[in-house]
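Incident review: delayed structure delivery

Summary: a single-chain prediction request sat in the queue longer than the usual turnaround. Root cause was a stuck worker, restarted by the on-call engineer. No data loss occurred. The affected request and its eventual output are reproduced below so the record is complete for anyone auditing the incident later.

Affected input:
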Amino acid sequence: MNRRAYPYRRPHPDAVTTDGWLLKQIDGEGVPLPPSVVDWDYQRDLDFECTVDVDLDKVRETAALPPEAELALTVVWSSSGSGLRLLAVDTPLQGGGTRSVHLAFTVLGRESGGVLSIETQLVLRKHLDNPDPTGPQRAGSILWQRVARIRLQGDASQFPMAVVDFKGTGYPENAPWYLDIGPNLEAATMGAVLLLVNSRTPLVLEAVRKAEKATHAEKLIHSALRQDVVRLMIEHAIGNEDLDDESRFEADTLGHTLLGVVRGHLPDMSLAALRNMRRSDPSLLAARVQSALGLFAKEA
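Output delivered after worker restart:
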């Protein structure tokens, strides 16, 4: 296992402790950070909080820092979906004794996506003429660090989601959702695909908004939604004659995404074979997608 070698002394591991980050749910209750948020969408902001205990005397003693050293707890988050990397928290720490610091921040849905990384660090806040040459001196020197990650986009939605009242919009009034897919295969997937959820179907809307705390019935809705989204994307790929198994597209384009969905769920079938199946037996194609997605299997 590779380990980073720091050119200065760092605090004893017991000098800084934390139970880890919590993700606040819709009801305000915090739950331990899950590996992923099922059916997350770009309209949902995420609230995080955690408590870090810092024994400032032990930090200074074991890291060879004088009493005047200025420290800080910082939190930096980054998103693979948006490409953003932002400082969320910068809390100065002075004096001695043990400090229990509550950290909290919000990530806006429109600024996130993909895998969200949270870096919690204890750093040297300002440059220091350290009398001990083995101790840290440069501003920003990392004394302690923990990194947590959470995936925000599961297999149900790799694109934005919006809540719309279907009445008077031209969509069937009582349909629970509608997947809008644009025609341009070279367009970015995030701008070419939009999942509309009907606000007039409260059971579905509530299920979509819930993640780890979904009831059994809501998990069934999640399963149906995932299956339908994948089926529609596969059918869209089959219906587009500009797509074939040799097509090549830039990453994150609609064409790349559609081919990825087909290959990921029906890897043993070519697009030509899928087109033949849709013409000869569309019910079999639908059943193949249900099987590939495990429709209701995990919820049984």
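Verification: The chain has two domains: 13-151, 161-293.
Action items: add queue-age alerting; document worker restart procedure.
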